[in-house]
Structure prediction request, 816 residues.
Amino acid sequence: MQTPWEYRYSQRTQRMKASAIRELLKVTEQPNMISFGGGFPAPDVFPVEEFKRACNYVLEHKGAEVLQYGGTDGYVPLREMITRHNNRVGIRVNINNILITSGSQQALDLLGKIFINRGDRILVESPTYLGALQAWNAYGAEYVTVPVDEYGMKTDALEEALRIGPKFIYVLPNFQNPTGTTLSLERRLKLIELADRYGVPIVEDDPYGQLRYEGEDLPAVEILDSKMRVQNGTYTGNVIYLSTFSKILAPGLRLAWVIAPEGVISKLSLAKQGTDLHTSTFNQIVAHEVGQHGFIDRHVEVIKATYRERRDAMLESLEENMPEGVHWTHPEGGLFLWLTLPEQFNSTEMLAEAIKENVAFVPGEFFHPDGSGKNTMRLNFSFCPPDKINEGISRLGKAFKRKLLTHY
Amino acid sequence: MQTPWEYRYSQRTQRMKASAIRELLKVTEQPNMISFGGGFPAPDVFPVEEFKRACNYVLEHKGAEVLQYGGTDGYVPLREMITRHNNRVGIRVNINNILITSGSQQALDLLGKIFINRGDRILVESPTYLGALQAWNAYGAEYVTVPVDEYGMKTDALEEALRIGPKFIYVLPNFQNPTGTTLSLERRLKLIELADRYGVPIVEDDPYGQLRYEGEDLPAVEILDSKMRVQNGTYTGNVIYLSTFSKILAPGLRLAWVIAPEGVISKLSLAKQGTDLHTSTFNQIVAHEVGQHGFIDRHVEVIKATYRERRDAMLESLEENMPEGVHWTHPEGGLFLWLTLPEQFNSTEMLAEAIKENVAFVPGEFFHPDGSGKNTMRLNFSFCPPDKINEGISRLGKAFKRKLLTHY
Prediction:
């Protein structure tokens, strides 16, 4: 039924589309469904007891503070904790370079708000994180894409894309969502060099950087960039860095942070003030209480052990169950791998087939701003325990084989 | 120092201004300052023990759920609780009419996102809530104003404003922020009738509706409107209604809700998904646990007793301490009263004088989209206990008298 409101939507409302992931999650709520669709952390590793202790402690000792309004920039001790962590890994920042956001999704929205005029082009990887596209579509962004291979963004295609004049470059260098691939050191340096030459800044989205299961950590693009740029002790980098507590503590808190030059933080903070005043004081103080004294570093080891096992289970199970012609990435960390079917197949059609077998994934085309990648899909390996992963991949194998047989 | 980012801000960034309240709060962090500036609830009435119990219970029994991602629309039992409350007071809604937001500020932002094209006019009271102006300025809103007197929005000036063709009407009918005045029943009906005649919908912002200290509750504009409009059991009203847990439980949770026709809720939800995915699962489940079994209704009585005493203390203290020519409203509920100086005085200049006496307020001009109201100010009476209120008003009286003497 039409209401008087329905004639009044803004132009940007026409550009908003329901996320495929969201619609998918509705189907996957069915019992017996094994879902590789969401980007959910394993509930098994949530530090529930630590949260209980922290809630009791902060309500006991800081009840009036944790339940009250707070500042827009975020809880100072939490920003100090993030500062210390960053200084330890080589990023020279102080708390004025840090803004707490209500999840990284909010950081993406605020970046859209302060930077994107309708029609502005944003340079993204293809495929890329679809939440970023969703956030920026609302501001009328257009996209310039650079393809991704097993070493991340193909920087040999970057210069041509930069000539188009994008507002900024959006990159997920570590265990990229959706492909699971990692930008090589050589390409990181090339990215920084080209961004600098063309005067185009970089947004580095790094939700999984701490979750590496093999190989060696690579320095963040921000670290490599800032090493060139620190002047008089002040960070003036060409990179805005995003990270989150969602994958190292719990996503239910909706807690993330942005690191950026002070001038940018103050604009983001101003935009945030009009958007939600501030992020929950309660969650910030609880997260600080849980996270301090090195707890996060220790807890990350538990998460890594759990996810490494699940990734290995999925990789082995794919070897066993996938028909010929199906390929997948070998992620060194993170939550996802990327699977490619023979070219003539459509993974959205394949999803219908898979759902009959009670298994789900996200079709790859949704991660491509240009709608390509129709024969690809994203599989999550963090949420299900290994036995479910084996069962799910076996069901997926069955669905694929049935469809492939019909085809030939 | 300029960074490469600073040349890249969007047009809307130019329109964002730091909130006066925010800057003010920085000054008021000084020790010995008595602040009537913020809109803070009394920390004395936060139900800390209830929160402790609830945190322990939900972490014990629903640990995997409370720390995990959740749906964008909000936690179903919390929406059901809100539905029951609304049905009880006469609003016929179901959970599909309800969206949980990260504070009402987010609801204002999302309304801007889905409705406002640059240059659209919004009809607001003058003065009005400055957070709404801040949210909508980012979308390029212009304002049409209707003055407020002791009975709320002057509906005899409404028709002329409606002829200008505003996108919607924004009204705070109960104990308005900033003036503390309440829209009379007669004017509510007039507002609904004129809005209907001109085909302009209404956004009703009602954060304090439950906090009445004298007189009788008036039905929400939404109730009056929806009584005319329920068709086949489906709500198709001309009103979007906003309310919040900030004033009846705790603002640190950042939890509020929108009631609207289903079609509008689904657009708001889509916009919210790109903005912050969802509001903290943890906070929603804890708030539901605290709020159920009638706790909120009982707790509201505690809050009302506390704030009534503070309001009375402020009103008495103003009688005692204010020089001639100073007037103020007599709010029947809420958190604020509104003070008017003789016309030749500027309350922003007066604030500098007051700060010397260690007392603060918010100058009234910031609540006027047209910059008028320079001789007015907002005083909050919920935050400080009665003895501090007496002391603060006495200091304010001193500052005013000194300034008034200098003037004559």
Residues 344 and 375 of chain A are 7 Å apart (CA to CA). The radius of gyration of chain A is 21 Å. Chain A touches chain B through 94 residues (CB under 8 Å). Chain A has a mean pLDDT of 92.
